[in-house]
Design a protein that fits this description.
Elements lengths: L11 E4 L2 E4 L10 H5 L2 E3 L2 E4 L2 E2 L2 H14 L8 H14 L5 E9 L13 E9 L6 H6 L1 E10 L16 H12 L4 E6 L4 E4 L3 E5 L5 E4 L8 H12 L4 E4 L11 E6 L3 E8 L2 E2 L4 H14 L11
Parallel strand pairs: 8-9, 8-15, 12-13
Antiparallel strand pairs: 1-2, 1-7, 3-6, 4-5, 4-6, 6-7, 9-10, 11-12, 11-14, 14-15, 15-16
Helix pairs in contact: 2-3
């Protein structure tokens, strides 16, 4: 991936129904989304020319907008085609796609009923979210002081921009302390997720335990891994997980569009192995999306 800043690149971005030069895909300073976080988005991956779970991502984008009280004026078929076209025009075969919808600038204040709804889709090449070395040894997480809010406090089931503010704060704090990412608890003190990925753990019983997603996203990759695990005969246990149980885990991994399946080697002072269940599901996921298995040898 180019090291160029994201506002200064060659290429085209699909913007409100047409392709515009990358550097011209701008919004006004007084856009409601910038001031009041009235924006929803998706993160999608293209592997070998195919966008994985494109329909599911587009449907979630529509649903996120509805939760935030607005309707995206493009159909699912139109958004799907925009994602495909953005990849094609930028010659992306393996990359990342970012559809984003937001309220515009007609009204500036908390109210925004008359604001135009905009939609854009950008696509670019994308390496591993975590370095290959960190992925294979297991990344290190630090428990964040910030907590995922209650469903009565924020629209927690929308992929909404405002919900990621505490993720940025948490990830910055973790990186400053020498970790790769943060583990976030929820408002009740229960294990929730990482800053942009769901979490699974094996507790020495051959089962995969994962928090119930009642105040955070039930990720598309999360659901894919649950399906793949069940095909392997691995029992999935969705339940409340408390932080003191982290000491009992033997394997831990994250799942997400960007993270894919990423082993966790440590959470705070607890350490874990990159074990058989983790590596098997990494391979299964890579095969499902059409990617070379992560632990395949270079000679294969």
């Amino acid at each position: 991936m180019s090291a160029a800043p994201y506002d200064d690149r060659d290429g085209q971005i699909w913007f409100d129904g047409k392709m515009v030069p990358w550097r011209d895909a701008n919004v006004h300073l007084l856009t409601h989304a910038l001031h009041y976080a009235s924006s929803v988005f998706e993160g999608e991956r293209m592997y070998a020319g195919n966008i994985f779970k494109l329909n599911e991502h587009t449907e979630r984008l529509h649903n996120s907008a509805k939760i935030l009280g607005f309707e995206i004026p493009w159909s699912s078929d139109e958004i799907n085609q925009a994602c495909i076209d953005a990849c094609e025009i930028n010659n992306i075969k393996d990359g990342y796609i970012r559809p984003v919808a937001w309220r515009g600038s007609e009204m500036m204040g908390v109210s925004a009923q008359k604001n135009t709804i905009h939609l854009a889709v950008a696509a670019w090449e994308w390496p591993s979210y975590f370095s290959p070395e960190a992925r294979m040894r297991g990344i290190r997480l630090q428990t964040s002081k910030w907590k995922r809010p209650s469903a009565e406090t924020e629209p927690v089931h929308a992929k909404a921009a405002g919900l990621y503010m505490i993720c940025t704060l948490s990830k910055h704090a973790a990186e400053d302390a020498g970790f790769d990412d943060s583990l976030m608890l929820d408002y009740r003190g229960q294990v929730a997720e990482a800053t942009g990925a769901n979490i699974f753990m094996e507790m020495g019983d051959g089962k995969l335990h994962t928090p119930t997603p009642d105040c955070f996203l039930d990720g598309i990759t999360r659901r894919t891994i649950i399906e793949l695990a069940k095909k392997r005969g691995i029992e999935i246990v969705e339940r409340v997980i408390m932080p003191d149980e982290l000491a009992n885990a033997t394997q831990v991994f994250l799942t997400g569009t960007a993270a894919e399946v990423t082993p966790v080697g440590a959470i705070d002072n607890h350490t874990y192995n990159v074990g058989e269940i983790t590596t098997q599901l990494m391979d299964d996921y890579d095969k499902t999306v059409g990617k070379k298995p992560a632990n395949a040898s270079a000679a294969e």
